[in-house]
Amino acid sequence: MAKRNVIFFDIDGTLLDHEKHLPENTKKAIKQLQDNGEIVAIATGRAPFMYEDLRKELDIDTFVSFNGQYVVVNGEEVYKNPLNISALLKLSEMGLNHNHPIVYMDHKDMKANVPSHDYINQSIDTLKINNFPTHDPLYYEGREILQSLFFCSEGEEVAYEKHFPDFDFIRWHPLSVDILPKGGSKANGIQKAVEALGVSNENVYAFGDGLNDIEMLSTVVNSVAMGNAEDEVKRVAKFVTKSVDQNGILHGLKMVGLL
Questions:
Q1: What is the pLDDT of residues 137-174, one digit of tens each?
Q2: Is the dihedral of CA 200, 203, 208, 214 positive or negative?
Q3: Rounded to 5 degrees, what angle do the CA atoms 186, 249, 221 make?
Q4: Is the pTM of this model over 0.90?
Q5: Catalytic residue among 10, 12, 106, 213
Q6: Mean pLDDT, residues 176-189
Q7: Is 61 an active-site residue?
Q8: Please, where are the H alpha helices in 131-213?
Q9: Which CATH class is domain 6-80+184-255?
Q10: How many CA atoms, within 13 angstroms, populate the side-chain half-sphere of residue 239?
Q11: Distances (CA, A) of 77 to 4, 50, 53, 192
Q12: What is the location of CATH 3.30.1240.10 in the chain?
């Protein structure tokens, strides 16, 4: 019996185009992979509740969420890597002093520590999701916070990085950064998933386009950067395909010999 491959896809700018639509040829390519017996998975910075509909549409039950901090394989939770709550509360307090709010996220929901803020509205709106963080400054109590969104303009996160060595600050929007446990990454989450699946590293593939995909694409043996990716993302990938809106997924799968 031939060895099965597992292919991890980022969502924004990879599976979904810039209008947050799933191209029809991408959907067909995913179905063909599955019909061929391959394992199709997602690796994203999004929370799992942000792309539940996409998983249902594509019949995917293995995914890496929160940039690697929450991993589900065949519908079963296999790994969680929560943030240090003590440090997170100090960050929240310092952020409030500079009008920089935060959103706390676990695998079920997300809540903001302020009633409203333009930075939150502008950045979350770009995701085009039904979920929107409501106000609950104590949402962290009794919960494992797997990722937070911190809202500040480009460059302002540098001042916080010096004070919070427990965290990595990964920008995903001009007004927002992801807060991750230090060293947490999609690459680490993928490795946890691969171990649970029992797949060899040479049979692992990954597609991505964002700055939070750099470690994933530089670690996975068969890595593919989208044509719409930044140059620094393309440099670490083994292959570079076309842009998401130019049949990039289908083209990339053909490039690596999976279709």
A1: 999 999 999 999 999 999 999 999 999 999 999 999 99
A2: positive
A3: 45
A4: yes
A5: 10
A6: 95
A7: no
A8: 157-163, 186-197
A9: alpha beta
A10: 20
A11: 21, 17, 18, 11
A12: 85-181
